[in-house]
């Protein structure tokens, strides 16, 4: 990624979110009693085999944990430096908002379409993996939610992606991936991500309802830089309690309200147009020559699925489809995600 691309991405990130810090129209939980904060743990598995194919973004696994809701950000016991970064991107911290902090350790794996080919394929995605940490600050009201995330990780052999994929394929009897000698080099990566969403209730009766969620999102860093808008429709029970961590790729988030004492569920459909400035899984290493292909900046992501929370448990299943991430190949990529949450 060139210095000019990095500057453009960071400037876009700032322009998208700093003005939003002065936006009005807060709808506080003024009449709602704050529940006792709880600790949640989520295990997530993503795989393109859930969608019936192998190749591209092929697998991801993560463990997330979080605690909330709290009346103030300080009560989340999140690091002060992470709170300061969230404040810099306009994330609110006042008594009109609920707050939570969540963390994740995750691994993601990408391969070309033909993993049995032991030769270098210049016109397909490179072998790549990431082992990363993500910290997120959540702030939300009944009609609005804000998030700031910091991703830190390592791309390359240090991600242990090769060992993970070979072990899983051996256990499942799948084809052995043969091209990991051509994976990206070791490189530390980071991304600053900010998101703001607005919830509009369309109908509500006996707890069941329909709502519409609009979202603005941006990311900047050598891992990935993009801007995006998301549009989502949901139908279900107690929707006003479950919108704080909505995402077009919900398997990659932890819901700070998962595992509540009341039953909550919904089905959803979302679409996200996205403009990508840089993506290390497509562009290759930032400072060294490595396998790469030509990035396709304009992308479109669709997703659908359902979420169910009951007593101490939460379950999420989603299917996502995205247009091609690079110019050398046409055609969409698909993958599915399963998350199980438990309230400790």
TrEMBL record:
<dbReference type="InterPro" id="IPR037107">
    <property type="entry name" value="Put_OMP_sf"/>
</dbReference>
<keyword id="KW-0732">Signal</keyword>
<feature type="signal peptide">
    <location>
        <begin position="1"/>
        <end position="23"/>
    </location>
</feature>
<dbReference type="Pfam" id="PF09982">
    <property type="entry name" value="LpxR"/>
</dbReference>
<protein>
    <recommendedName>
        <fullName>Outer membrane protein</fullName>
    </recommendedName>
</protein>
<dbReference type="InterPro" id="IPR018707">
    <property type="entry name" value="LpxR"/>
</dbReference>
């Amino acid at each position: 990624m060139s210095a000019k691309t990095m500057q453009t991405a960071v400037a876009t990130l700032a322009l998208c979110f700093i003005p939003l810090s002065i936006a009005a129209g807060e709808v506080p939980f003024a009449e709602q009693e704050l529940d006792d904060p709880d600790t949640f743990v989520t295990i997530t598995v993503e795989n393109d085999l859930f969608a019936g194919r192998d190749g591209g973004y092929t697998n991801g696994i993560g463990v997330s944990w979080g605690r909330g809701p709290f009346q103030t950000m300080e009560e989340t016991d999140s690091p002060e430096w992470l709170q300061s970064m969230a404040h810099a991107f306009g994330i609110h911290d006042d008594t009109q908002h609920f707050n939570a902090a969540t963390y994740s350790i995750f691994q993601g794996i990408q391969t070309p379409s033909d993993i049995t080919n032991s030769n270098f394929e210049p016109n397909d995605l490179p072998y790549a993996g990431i082992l990363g940490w993500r910290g997120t600050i959540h702030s939300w009201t009944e009609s609005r939610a804000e998030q700031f995330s910091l991703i830190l990780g390592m791309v390359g052999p240090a991600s242990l992606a090769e060992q993970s994929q070979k072990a899983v394929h051996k256990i499942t009897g799948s084809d052995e991936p043969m091209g990991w000698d051509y994976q990206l080099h070791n490189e530390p990566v980071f991304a600053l991500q900010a998101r703001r969403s607005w919830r509009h209730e369309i109908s509500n009766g006996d707890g069941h309802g329909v709502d519409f969620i609009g979202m603005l999102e941006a990311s900047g860093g050598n891992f990935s830089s993009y801007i995006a808008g998301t549009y989502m429709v949901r139908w279900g029970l107690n929707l006003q309690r479950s919108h704080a961590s909505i995402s077009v790729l919900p398997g990659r988030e932890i819901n700070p309200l998962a595992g509540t004492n009341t039953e909550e569920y919904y089905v959803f459909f979302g679409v996200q147009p996205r403009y990508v400035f840089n993506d290390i899984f497509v562009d290759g290493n930032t400072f060294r020559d490595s396998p790469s292909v030509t990035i396709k900046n304009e992308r479109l992501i669709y997703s659908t699925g359902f979420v169910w929370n009951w007593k101490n448990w939460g379950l999420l299943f989603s299917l996502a489809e995205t247009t091609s991430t690079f110019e050398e190949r046409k055609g969409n990529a698909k993958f599915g995600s399963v998350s199980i949450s438990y309230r400790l």
